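Worked Example 4.2. Read the sequence first, then its structure tokens.
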Amino acid sequence: MLERKPGSEFPGLVDRFVTYAKVHTTSSENSDTYPSTARQFDLAHILVDELKAIGLADAAVDEHCYVTASLPASKGCEKVPVIAFISHMDTYPEVSGENVVPTFHENYRGGDIELPKNGRRILAAENAYLQECIGETIITADGTTLLGADDKAGIAEIMEALTRIRENPDWVHGPLKVVFTPDEEVGAGVKHFDVAKFGAKVAYTMDGGRRGEIEDETFCADSAIVTFVGRDIHPGYAKDKMIPSVKVAGAFLASLPREGAPETTEGKQGYIHPISIKGNTSETEVTLLIRDFDLDGLKPKAEKIREHAVKACDQWPGATFRLEVKEYYRNMKYDLQKEPRAMDYALEAVKRAGLKPVRGSIRGGTDGSTLSARGLPTPNVFTGEQDFHGYGEWICVKDMELATETILRIIEVWTEKER
């Protein structure tokens, strides 16, 4: 294990995390700029300065808010494939990420965790993983914001690993790269990222949950837009003539079964999820998410949407609809199978960090889904973040330390096996 040197000039893992968590970086779904919010550059500039301070001289941020840096290989390790570590700077837009107050709960004894403000608490009954953190330090927000461990814990862990390498120059390693991205939470994290120019063989997103878990599966994802077309007539003269598309859309939504919705599914079960509706009497547009771990499971769900749209129009003679299905991302397992070392070496690294490796799947997507499809195999590694996207987000300091150690072990395994 690479230890921090006493009297180091650099801040520690937890100090870094607290600093990053306090920077307001919330992204926005209602923006036509990239990144979606200029405030994400605030953290980007901090990270560039820190990367340069620990010896990554080429650290820079570009016009798209991508922070990149590289660490050359140790002498004799130049032929080791380039590996990269990635985390995102933005936080979830639907819960405030401004004025975050990281709050420490030391020597956690079990039970619910009271947050200082707004009467909120983290319920032990809904967070079974808390039992594995008894006796440890838990970090939460104060009840007025999310914490931002998703994904500032990942950033802090990457920075800490690089710092330890910098402080231990005799520790050999292959060539390394890091990337900190914007707008992951709004599905655009790597929209402008040039994989070929970046030049890594394999990457790892540091954006997972419980200790020891490496995720190599995501949903296959499409979106469906159903546009119902009615007939608008002055309401004073509408009898037997008007076809209100809003009501047709309402009939469609009411007909969708609860079975196969997000609120009734778990594990490897897919779902159909209506997320927005907008329109008027003439036309109303309904947007739905389609998710399945199996690529072959997407088309039947799209057909089910079509069937329910037909039935809704049948209830309103004269109504019609248009259905557009858009590809979003695919299960990254299909691409990771082409480069088995990405997972094999990561699982070995978890063992070397003293943990039981768990091969997991994500009921969602990551930047790694898109990167893997573009030719950069990118599994997802645990950071410790828990119950993210809400006021009850929390993280165990021990997990952050274990994630940092796992990064170092991943580098170690790649170097040993490919040198």
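Now turn to a second chain, presented in exactly the same format:
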Amino acid sequence: MAITNQIHFRNLRGDIFGGVTAAIVSLPLALAFGVASGAGAVAGLYGAVCVGFFAALFGGTPTLISEPTGPMTVVITTIIASLTAANPENGLAMAFTVVMLAGIFQILFGIFKLGKYTADCE
């Protein structure tokens, strides 16, 4: 039986409750990761919103829940710290560019079905 990504209004109630539950769980995590990265709590909120939007847009399963993860905090913190130390004026913009390029690479890997060649780190 193949899983299809079709919208069914009979699932609307469950989808709404699932979304609210994921938001409640993700909110404190997103705030903490934003503060831990050094970019601030608001940056964590924007990051969580963007992750949720793009996961819904490009997600592949009906039960997909995406939120910030612990290992990414270490990676993003390292990127932000090193780029802002090297260039205080433009470091945050350069870090944003690095993160966006990483997302573009992930999308390209998905389009070309290259995920089977990458290691699962979690």
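Notes for the reader: The chain has a mean pLDDT of 79. The helical segments are 12-37, 41-58, 70-86, 91-111.
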